[in-house]
Amino acid sequence: MSLLADPRWGEALAHLPDYLGNHVRVSLAALALGLVVSLPLAILTRNRPAPRGMLLAFASIVQTVPGLAMLALFYPLLLAAASVTLAWFGVSFSAFGFLPAMLALALYSMLPVLRNGITGLNGIDPALIEAAKGVGMTARQSLLMVELPLALPVMMAGIRTAAVWVIGTATLSTPIGQTSLGNYIFAGLQTQNWVFVLFGCFASALLALAVDQLLGLIERGLRHRNRLRAALGCVGIAALVAATLVPAMGRSSQGYVVGAKTFAEQYVLSALLKDRLQVAGLSATVRSGLGSSVIFEALKAGDIDLYVDYSGTLWANQLHRADIRPRTELLAELKTALARDKITLLGELGFENAYALVMPRQRADSLGIRTIADLAAHAPSMSIAGDYEFFSRPEWAALQKAYGLSFRAQRQMQPDFMYAAIASGEVDVIAGYTSDGLIAKYDLTTLDDPRQAIPPYDAILLLAPKRAGDERLQAALKPLLGKIGIATMREANLRASGNDANSSPDAVAKWLWETVKQR
Amino acid sequence: MPAKLAISYRHVVKCFGRLKAVDDVSLDIAEGEFMVIVGGSGSGKTTLLRLANRLIEADGGNITVEGRNVSNVDPVALRRRIGYVFQSGGLFPHLSVADNIGITPKLLGMPTANISARVDELLELVQLDRAAHRDRLPEALSGGQRQRVGVARALAARPRIVLMDEPFGALDPLTRDALGDDYRSLHRKLGLTSVMITHDMTEAILLADRIAVMRAGKLLAQGTPKELTKSGDAYVTELLRTPRRQVERLNALLPESGCA
Q1: Could you say which of A356, A437, B83, B232 is the most buried, measured as most Cβ atoms within 10 Å of its Cβ?
Q2: pLDDT of residue B47
């Protein structure tokens, strides 16, 4: 099938008003806030070298923080701020989505605006400032009639740079809950949907280009005192904002919001949950691509209503427990702990997505290896590969301790390559994920863990505090509990990793439901 | 009866750090007078000029303009009342010739239509073609034209006093001569008090009613060109001798005007 005839273009297009609208709103709001803060600062510090130096140093440091980290940092920061305002003034606000994204992006826009503003104002011939004074201008008149107009081209160049940066970086605000054109990119990368990735990249590049050109039009209009041009540029920007506000106003209340983390299994499961709610007559939308640390807080704060997490993840990250308990005990304790935050643990879906040591089936059979204990004897002559975090996680330390594991070599790899590496015999063992579809695809086997060194990672369905007593919701979800076995989930994940129309999360979710409902 | 004073400096001192730029200078400039202050670079002549409209604030002594102590006058109002011609024009590059000329009347709140009429009047006064120059940006003008616009701008709000900071210094000799003559006749026609600074004694002698000579912050001598020749100061004598020597050498080198 030719790339252009791919039906996923149509699917991508259907999301455009929502994604683009949110993207434009958050970018332009951030840019406006950045300008409102930076331009006065540039003007105030133009004749004061000491604070000017400090300001530029601060802005430069901000710029060195990677975009993803900056956006992620604002989430806990605002959560803390929200709890303070709640305690002191009795008002709270949502630290999810728009606000943290806008603030982080505004901070990002400051450096180019400040630097160019200061450079532009300081680059003016001092004789002209003297002349402004000489013809009888006040300091204010000199600023408005001489200094700002002369600095305008350099300042506008800074504003245009900032606009392009902000629009580009806004694609990274998806993981903190701000819908943006980044939703295409995050979802596309995780589900190998290159149509979505391309679409997201082109859309944000076109948007950046368009805003840059409109700002350029305004600049030329101001510089050549051409009212028509400046007005056209302003009208263009205003039209862009208006166009993105229309669908936002037209949309009714969102109903239930299903959260999803940033990997394929989560995209599939969230699509399944949304479908189930809609079939039950409840309106539901998916907020996907959320960061692992953001999604739980978002549920707690009620910004999303439900999502699927894994027991071992919450055990370590939310309860901060390092000890390992048997499955049922761990689940029971987790349920009690979550109940203290008024979060409902509705139940398990029926499969685990845990780390597991994985080997080719044939090789394991011929060596007589069924458990990790069997593996220990062969380990010194074998090599192992894991993802970027595995060897620094408590699971690895626990495994080494419990079985006395010691490998000849250990390597870190991108998960996709890890499976290819073991299939080709480049490494002997990998630390894979139990629900990964590639286990079936490459005919691999997961080794048993008789000493229970790896904590259980049962997929569990969580509901926000405000949905605790919601019986319609719970009734719609209960048919899923305990129904999704590991083999089913692996097959679903394998389908989702394909690169065609049948591999979209929605399509896989439909297949998954067809499979599950027959049980 | 002595004429009324337009500007009067009394024991004026201005220091920049440890450097005394103006050192105990007293100088009177009468109404209607064309005063030229002559000195080399670093002599303090520019500082002395700018003290009059408070572009620079004095450290000591008294300065009065039209009878009022300048330190008691709002500096912005003072500057709008005194015309100022900057070295090499000082025109605002983003404003048209007309907007440059009309800037001070605009700051004073004159209605737009009146400003427009005044600009036309001034363009005629400084002999610039209205149609050709009105809407141009300064970058499109020659050096001489720019300085004519500078003079027009200084005169726009009908000041009685005009200060000029080496206005013709950067121009070619022909343009410079023509502009000097034209300004001199404007000075007479409009009844202005003009204070101009220059490093060129020839220019000073040709334009000035009276000349003041400065060196290292001190006022060495003042008077009509004729009076200056009687000054006993060696520097002043040397300054005056130079133009004459040049004329003698020129006469020796060039044949007498044979084609007249």
Answers
A1: B83
A2: 94
Does the structure show a pLDDT above 80 at B128?
Answer: yes
**Which segments within A403-455 are labelled E, that is strand?**
409-412, 429-433, 444-446
**Residue A147 DSSP class:** I
Residue B80 to chain A, least CA–CA distance (Å): 5
Asked if B53 is an interface residue toward chain A (Cβ–Cβ < 8 A), one would say yes
pLDDT the model gives residue B256:
66
The β-bridge relationship of strands B5-16 and B60-65 is antiparallel
Residue of B nearest to A149 (CA): B94
What is the reported pLDDT for B150?
94
The pLDDT > 90 percentage for chain A reads 42
What pLDDT, on the 0 to 100 scale, is given for residue A3? 65
User: How far apart are alpha carbons B82 and B76 in whole angstroms?
Assistant: 10
One-character DSSP codes across B144-184: HHHHHHHHHHHHTT--SEEEEESTTTTS-HHHHHHHHHHHH
Distance CA B185, CA B175 (A): 15
In chain B the first and final C-alpha atoms are separated, in Å, by 45
CB contact at 8 A, B123 and B205: no
Query: Which of helix, strand or coil describes residue B89?
Result: strand
Contacts A130 to B, Cβ<8 Å: 55, 86, 90
Residues B204-236: pLDDT tens digits? 998 999 999 999 999 999 999 999 988 888 899
Inform me whether the pLDDT recorded for B260 exceeds 50.
no
DSSP characters for A168-196? HHGGGGGGGT---THHHHHHHHHTT-HHH
Q: What residues contact B174, with CB distance under 8 A and at least 6 apart?
A: none
pLDDT band for A340, please (50, 70, 90 cuts). very high
Q: Which of A131, A141, A149 sits opposite B107 (nearest CB)?
A: A141
Distance CA(A203)–CA(A19), nearest Å, equals 10
- Please give the residue of chain A at the shortest CA–CA distance from B76: A136
Which residues in chain B are closer than 8 Å to A132, comparing Cβ atoms? 92
pLDDT of A252 > 70? The answer is no
How many other β-carbons are positioned within 10 Å of the β-carbon of residue A217? 21
- Which 135-164 residues of chain A touch chain B by CB within 8 A? 135-138, 141, 145-146, 149-150
Cα–Cα distance between B29 and B184 in angstroms, integer? 17
Does the CB of B109 have a partner CB in chain A at under 8 Å? no
Largest CA distance in chain B: 60
Token pair for residue B78?
Answer: 């003072």
Across the interface, do A131 and B87 touch by the CB < 8 Å criterion?
no
> Which residues in chain A have their CB less than 8 angstroms from residue B53's CB?
134
Distance, in Å, from the CA atom of A31 to the CA atom of A12, rounded to the nearest integer, reads 27
* Contact between A134 and B55 using a beta-carbon 8 Å cutoff: yes
Give the closest of A136, A138, A146 to B92, CB-based.
Answer: A146
- pTM of the predicted structure, to 2 decimals: 0.75
Return d(Cα B246, Cα B260) in angstroms, integer.
22
Prediction ipTM score: 0.90
Structural element, H or E, at residue A307? strand A306-310
- As a whole number of angstroms, the distance between CA A396 and CA B215 comes to 86
A127 CB neighbours in chain B (<8 A) are 86-87, 90
The answer, yes or no, to whether residue A253 has pLDDT greater than 60, is no
What's the pLDDT at B1? 43
Q: pLDDT tier at A378 (50, 70, 90 boundaries)?
A: very high
B90 contacts A137? CB cut-off 8 A: no
- Mean pLDDT calculated for residue range B128-133: 89
At residue B15, the pLDDT reads: 93
pLDDT of residue B76: 95
Identify residue A246 by its one-letter amino acid code. Answer: V
Q: What angle do CA B165, B166, B170 make, to 5 degrees?
A: 135
